[in-house]
Amino acid sequence: MLVSMNYKEIIQNADPDELKTFVLNYAETNEKFRTLIQCGLASSGNASQLKAFKNEINYIFARHGDNSGFIDYRSSSGFERDVDGFFAGTILPLLKNGQTETASGLLMHLIKKTGSLQIDDSDGCISGIMDEISEAWNTLLVQADKKQTAEYRKWFEVNIENDKIIDYIQDDLYRIYFENFTDEESLKSKISWLDGRIERTKKGEMYGSGWTNRFKLETDIKQKIGCMQKLNYSREEIFSLMSTYSEMPEICTLLVDDYCGQKEYDKAEKLLLHLKEKNAMYPGIICDADNALKKIYRESGQKEKYIQMLQHLLKTDRRNNWDQYLEYKSLFQPSEWQTALKEILALNLDSGLENRIYIEENMIDDLFRSVSAHHRKYHSLLELDAYEKYLYPEYDRQIADMYEECLSDEIKRVSNRGQYKELTGYLKKLHKYDSGKEKAASLKQQWMQEYKRRPALMEELGKLKF
Prior knowledge:
There is one protein chain. With 466 residues, the chain is mainly alpha-helical. The protein is flat. The chain has helices at 7-13, 16-29, 31-40, 47-64, 73-96, 100-115, 125-143, 146-159, 167-179, 184-202, 211-230, 235-244, 249-261, 265-278, 283-299, 303-316, 321-329, 334-345, 351-360, 364-378, 381-391, 396-410, 417-432, 437-450, 455-462. The termini are far apart. It is built from 25 helices and no strands. 76% of the residues lie in helices and 0% in strands.
């Protein structure tokens, strides 16, 4: 029977005229099949085809938006699925068939539509769409000839600064632009374009005079340096540009790396000290500069400065203070360590770091004094939770007393079942302590009397088996 034949055999054995008639009739009734033919079999695009595809994009946006065009959270997933379908069914087949003009026109149209879209993007669908757009451009630019490449490059340069495109989409265009267009002519064009942006940004014409202006200027200068390096500019030319903007942290880092590579540590140190002076209001920049100085002192063998900077970073670099501590400890022999340890513990360190050091060095009495001091100020269950396992069993009675005080305070602040359940969990923990069994039972009875009008609390307390 015919239906049992493989579809390939059927097509190969079919009469050409009958097959053509069948395809024409099916294309009339099936839009997806019709689109597939347009994308996959047409040798080149045309204006009417591009217009029809753009209308499909417009329909997707209109279908999922309200009267004002806004796409709400409930509609965003369907919107993303339809855009994904358009990519799979139209743009990717166009690229596969080499129809770069039509594909690029659709990508440009989709970027502008997405760039001006109002959407509740809680699920990040715009990010997913821009990833697809980025991959499509990567494929398209491999196929583009020299003239097309220049046209696409110019389109990016214009639309990166298009006020009708929202800023985070502009950032995506900026990223795509610099990830691509890497031929010599494009790199030269990028430098020229960047020079114009840099001058306008310095005048405050692009982003005003605040932090954004500073960040964008620094980013453009870094990109220009990258282009100059790819075009094999001389070290002197690149160095001159970096020196002009050495008060910018990331540009300063490039210069410091260059100096250190030449073992000119004194120049690198001077540069970082100047950077700190000019950026005194930015703690993050100061901390990064201090870490760079620490590296310089270590590599150049300036041990005294190295140790002093490590001690300073123990107090200031809260992101990495434990790593700083381990690095500091590694500098000393076991016989020297107790003296060095006393020095850093006298530095008024962050209490979290200090407690961690006490645990590391098995200084349990000091840990207890620290936890007790914190308890007297805050009555924090979280603090007790963090350190009680290190203090038991030596301080069984004191821990039980602190838990009792914390729980007596906390019961006055809670108001829902989740919080009640958490507190009864602490009662169970308190009951495990030798000195806490009587306290836990007493608190349970007290709460059942005082808060008997809270049924959820009564249920949770009723689950306790003591």
